[in-house]
Amino acid sequence: MTRRPPTTTVTAARPWAVARGIALWALGGLLGVAGASHLTWGRRGYRIVVPDWATALTRLDKDAIVVGSGVVELMLAGALVALPRERTRIGWLVAAFFVAVFPGNFHQWQTGRSAPLLRTDRARFVRLLLQPVLVAWAIWGTRGR
Predict the structure, then answer these.
(1) Do 71 and 64 form a contact (C-beta atoms < 8 A)?
(2) What are phi and psi of 118, to 5 degrees?
């Protein structure tokens, strides 16, 4: 008679593993679309909302900041997919990226500048509230992979 391992632990953990897998791929998709928009159709709109202090701090023009952030988003999206052994670390990098762009998002809300999909004060404020959710999503969706 062969002994079978208990299935309760595997069965209980499986839904969370599936949810994390979906979260991981959705996060990669979000970063990919956001990165592509920074480099193409949304580029002009993103330049409008780059705060002047960011150009002074980095000594880059607004377009270079937009392109750079788009490239970073595409690299993070690609890394989530292509480097499965490093997903936990990449998740922390994604979370750090979301924290790093928060001051710009706050500036956009504070100044009332419109950008693609963020044309009202309410939309810009909701985006601020979603930023911690994005940070948590990046960490949770890549944990233990």
Answers:
(1) no
(2) -130, 70
Characterise 114 by phi-psi region: left (phi > 0), alpha (psi -120 to 50), beta (else): beta
pLDDT of residue 62: 95
Reduced to 3 states, what is the DSSP secondary structure of residue 40?
coil
d(CA 15, CA 41): 37
- Tell which residue, 112, 132, 134, 137, has the closest CA to residue 124: 112
Q: Using one digit for the tens of pLDDT, what is the confidence trace for 104-132?
A: 889 989 999 887 778 899 999 999 999 99
Closest residue by Cα to residue 57 from 107, 98, 96: 107
| Cβ atoms of residues 24 and 80 within 8 Å | yes
Residue 115 backbone dihedrals phi, psi, to 5 degrees? -145, 170
Q: Side chain identity at 56, as an amino acid letter?
A: A
